[in-house]
Amino acid sequence: MDKEWADLHTQLGKTHGPQTRFFSFADTVEARNYAGTNDSHGWIGLRFQLQPGGPANDIVLHINLRDPANALQQEAIGILGVNLIFASFYQLQTMESFLEGLAENVVRGRIEVDFVDFRGPAFSGWDHQTLLAHLVQAGYAEAVWFTSKGEAGPPSELLHNRPVVLAPGYFGHVDATHTQIHSQMMAAALQELRKELGEAVSTPVGIFCLTAASPGPATPNPDVSDLLLRIEALLARGGDVLLFRERELYAMTELVNRYTKAPLRFVAGLSLLIRAFVDPYGNLEGRRLEALARLFGQNARVYAYPMAATDLQEWIESNSVTGWEWSETNGWVSAEQLRHTPPLGHLYAYLLANNFFVPMKNPAGVTAQPASAYILG
Length: 377
Known about the structure:
Strand 6, helix 6 (176-197) and strand 7 (205-211) form a beta-alpha-beta unit. 38% of the residues are buried. The model is unreliable at 367-377 (pLDDT under 50). It is built from 12 helices and 15 strands. The strands form 4 sheets. A 7-stranded mixed β-sheet has the order 5-8-7-6-9-10-15, sandwiched between helices. By secondary structure, the protein is of the alpha/beta class. It is elongated, with a radius of gyration of 23 Å. It folds into 2 domains: 2-126, no CATH class; 155-375, no CATH class. Helices cover 38% and strands 21% of the residues.
């Protein structure tokens, strides 16, 4: 993009510069190979002027190509490029109007845009984190990455070939007490994974995960400002955050498995584990069994974090969940002390016995908190 821009001004600056708005477009893309074994993705960039002789503005996108054939991917990139140029000149009134123009006739189902960077006066008043959240909420990306450690990028840069611990939740409480509990759960899970893997592998990365979807059918989707408030609370502890479009754990597994074959571990409180286990998954033909097959399809496990017995009881009652029984040790309930009545209980016992659900030890000396703290939400 720099070279194209320099050549443009060298060749046409004197003759056309005073009355022409210049732009330069560039892309670097790895399209689908013949065998379909590569990760089809790339970068697209545009540098442009809003007035003749005016300052340059840059916008750069990272895209994932989802079409099954090379020719279709070429077509989609062409449409996206035209959209990018038109939207940059004529649809910059708001982030939403820009994204709508960018996505017209191409993004959903064909191209994912999971990172956008911009600079220049044309984007005055725009916020980078807000734009990333809009990408997910509007369905243009399956997930985006937020980090407190310098500049973020597409999720592939965070996940590439690394063992991963995902801590999913709604993180509705942003106070210091709940944030500390989230950090304790993540630290315990990372320690467990390091012990499991030994010293011969790369250092695992721990990531908090939120969803832009509603927690249930009767609840509206969270707005962007609410999502960013929760994300900022997690970033303040020095963590990385992935914002997912979907709320199901198996969708998170599928995205992570695009970029790494190393072990994937979720860490979840018992209440989130119960919620994920008993969901009927009416959107899947195979219902619960299909969801579990997708969740555990490639070297994935769930580290089940214990919960205070009083909090578990309160959560069960407040959510009208039935069929669960448990025993406790020193006021705590672990996953292996949790039971469900047959026949669903047989499936739960199978998952425990085969280490798909991995019970974590009761946190000695930790003061019990309200139930919401243990939902990871």
